[in-house]
Amino acid sequence: MKEQKKGSPLGTLWSWGKAHHGKFVFSIILAILGVACQMIPYFCVVNVISKMFAGETAFSAYLPVCLVALAGYCGKVLFSNLSTVISHNAAYSTLRDLRERVVEKLAKVPMGTILDTPSGHYKSIIVDRIEGMEIPFAHLLPEMTSNMLVPLFIIVYLFVLDWRMALLSLATLFIGLVIMSIGMRNYATEGAGAMAASKKMADAVVEYIGGIEVVKAFSQSAGSYEKYADAVRGNADYYIKWMANSQKTMCSYNAVIPSVLLSVLPGGMALWLSGSLETMTFC
């Protein structure tokens, strides 16, 4: 019997939102336009600097460029907000459809299986896990796509200007990715442990709340509460320990990746002083 090939996580998410693909695609297009508009002020600043180097002093020469920069910023706000609204609308519609499909499937599960499974497990799937997909649907799909396409265009543009400056601008990205890969090497194991701790807590909470009347009747409140409290403390302790171990690499790559000037300024200055880099390209 042939095993079915598993799709990529992103492909699986996309298939779950099939009924709302139109909204997701429109949201992605708007997000791309928003990020593109965000880049316009930077090109306007370059234009202003070039005019200053050329000795331009007339205010009328700078006004149109400033208005274009303002229009770019306004476009970024408009398109980004519209993208977010549409993606959230599509995301919550998708979550509704997923919950309906899970409940429909649950109705076909044998009663023995349902009785043998803690109610907290069903609550965790129907409420918590599906709710956790809101971020991938509403943010990952539009924002990841837009934040990848536009930077790719910028990288190509940098290589067209000067390949040496392009490599210098990418240096911190490569260093940051190396640090990130070190921090993520145990993610699968730690993530599975986090899900197990959360499931144990959810089962304990639902069991405690559902059986509280019986517990009181038989004076077993202390023991039952202890089991519930231990599960909650265990879940919190696991996440605190996991986050504490992740902070070093997380803070490091968040500090390194945006620090492009650390490589661009000294490297660009050296090339400019040697005469192999034009002033406007450096700017």
TrEMBL record:
One GO MF term on file is: ABC-type oligopeptide transporter activity
Gene3D superfamilies on file: ABC transporter type 1, transmembrane domain
**Subcellular localization, per the record?**
Cell membrane
Pfam families, A to Z: ABC_membrane
Q: Which GO terms describe its cellular component?
A: plasma membrane
Q: Which UniProt keywords apply?
A: ATP-binding, Membrane, Nucleotide-binding, Transmembrane, Transmembrane helix
Q: List residues of the ABC transmembrane type-1 domain.
A: 25-283
- Where it mainly occurs, coarsely classed, is membrane
The record gives the membrane topology as: Multi-pass membrane protein
Q: Which residues cross the membrane?
A: 24-49, 61-79, 140-160, 166-184, 251-273
Superkingdom of origin organism:
Bacteria
Q: Which PANTHER family match?
A: ATP-BINDING CASSETTE SUB-FAMILY B MEMBER 10, MITOCHONDRIAL (PTHR43394:SF1), ATP-DEPENDENT PERMEASE MDL1, MITOCHONDRIAL (PTHR43394)
Q: What is this protein called?
A: Putative ABC transporter, ATP-binding/permease protein
| Native species | Faecalicoccus pleomorphus
